[in-house]
Write a structure and sequence with these properties.
CATH class of the largest domain: Alpha Beta
CATH superfamily of the largest domain: Metal-dependent hydrolases
Bound molecules: zinc ion
Structural class: alpha/beta
Radius of gyration: 22 Å
Largest sheet: 8 strands, parallel
CATH topology of the largest domain: TIM Barrel
Helix content: 25-40%
Strand content: 15-25%
Number of strands: 16
CATH architecture of the largest domain: Alpha-Beta Barrel
Number of helices: 13
Shape: globular
Distance between the termini: 63 Å
Order of helices and strands: EEEEEEHHEHEHEHEHEHEHHEHHHEHEE
């Protein structure tokens, strides 16, 4: 057996077992057993999990780090999507958003995510229009110090329009973003004057530059907005790893219509990202009673075999005033607002997003990367419910974040 670098013990799995986990110098699990094997303890780093639950580390598949933590300086009094978009653009024009402050905010958000147990992040970053690639440059700078602790990739969220008149400035910026190494091409086809041309352009560039695709798709309650069909058509058979985020309008379709559409999404192997925080916040504000939840068609997609993923989208910015940068919050909403079982909701913040991002699976088995989270909870359900602050985060078998929390109940003086 390869000489291990790390021995992880003292924790337990969901099934109640209490494994000793040996990790090699490449960060892969080489042994999982109920007892310590015949291993020399020399030069082996020991991590004692002290009774915590061990699960695969978490993934944030859809963040907007460039906008995060701006809720106190970028107003959105109306609280809807267009109010947020206009609020952001007004703030940009007024010079509220700057390089140094953005780098600092992104670093703070990455710290929050890492402490929560996230070892892989995909963030959309605005590219084009008046900002060109400035935000992407700030994001790359901020991410540099986290690269050994987290897998971080960026999506060029390209300004409209991406085709026709006025698109040159945005496509030039997108090409510059690709030059800078952005891994994923994105945009908002349902807001474009010509959605088909937009999606066509995205896939053309993705193929030419060997990039992945992640589009903001049909982020509206209007059931006639179905640019998902364009995404499915261009993705199918392309070999391009494709994600469609939001897909709110699918949740408003009649059951028979959504079933056939979901089957097409599954056949094209397009992953769908539900984003409960922001969609619950932004959607349905014109309906003061029987307010729609604004979530995608979660159960029809799952029944059709679609890879369903859940992300937080915006955190404390004009698109969502709250948000903790903690996927357990997302999973809790998938349980409460999306009616999923806790164990299935957990898959949407761990194994499913890994597949969507093209990452290897993580399970606590030999050969898998030791990207793990140890959390002070008795079960995955309890971890989702209580989101305990007490967590140890491991990447490749090394501790990359540790948070402890202690409550005291001093005697009351009477
Ligand atoms: Zn988004």
């Amino acid at each position: 057996m390869t000489q291990p670098r790390t021995l992880i013990s003292g924790g337990f799995l969901e099934d109640g077992s209490t494994p000793h986990i040996l990790v090699d110098r490449d960060g892969r699990i080489i042994e999982v057993s109920e007892r310590v094997g015949d291993v020399s303890s020399e030069n082996v780093n020991h991590i004692d999990l002290d009774g915590r639950l061990i699960v695969p580390s978490l993934v944030e598949p859809h963040a907007h780090l460039d906008k995060s933590l701006t809720a106190d300086v970028v107003p959105n009094p109306k609280g809807d999507l267009m109010g947020a978009i206009h609020g952001w653009r007004d703030a940009e024009a007024a010079g509220v958003i700057g390089h140094e402050e953005m780098v600092a905010r992104i670093r703070r958000s990455l710290e929050m995510l890492l402490a929560s147990g996230v070892t892989a992040v995909r963030s959309h970053i605005n590219v084009g229009g008046p900002v060109s690639t400035r935000y992407l440059v700030a994001a790359i700078e901020a991410a540099a110090t986290f690269r050994q602790r987290m897998d971080i990739e960026f999506v060029a969220l390209t300004y409209m329009p991406m085709s026709g008149e006025g698109s040159d400035i945005n496509l030039t910026a997108l090409n510059d973003a690709i030059e800078l190494g952005v891994e994923v091409i994105g945009g908002c086809p349902h807001l474009e004057p010509d959605s088909d041309s937009c999606v066509s352009k995205v896939f053309e560039l993705a193929e030419r530059h060997q990039r992945k695709v992640d589009l903001h798709v049909d982020e509206t309650l209007d059931p006639t907005a179905l640019t998902i069909n364009d995404v499915v058509r261009y993705s199918r058979g392309s070999g391009i790893l494709t994600t469609a985020s939001h897909c709110v309008s699918l949740g408003m379709l009649p059951v028979d219509q959504v079933q056939s559409l979901a089957e097409n999404v599954a056949a094209a192997e397009v992953s769908i990202v539900a984003l409960p925080q922001t969609n619950l916040f932004l959607q349905g504000r014109d309906d003061p009673v029987a307010t729609p939840r604004g979530l995608t068609a979660i159960h029809a997609l799952l029944a059709a075999g679609v890879n369903l993923v859940a992300g937080a989208d915006n955190a404390q910015d004009p698109f969502n005033f709250v948000g903790r940068n903690d996927p357990f919050e997302t999973a809790a909403l998938m349980v409460m607002a999306g009616h999923m079982l806790p164990i299935d909701a957990f898959a949407t913040i761990s194994s499913n997003p890994r597949k969507a991002l093209g990452m290897p699976e993580v399970s606590i088995e030999v050969g898998q990367p030791a990207d793990l989270l140890a959390v002070r909870a008795g079960s995955t359900r309890q971890a989702i419910a209580e989101a305990p602050a007490d967590r140890i985060v491991m990447k490749g078998g090394q501790v990359v974040a540790r948070t402890s929390a202690m409550s005291e109940f001093p005697p009351v003086i009477t």
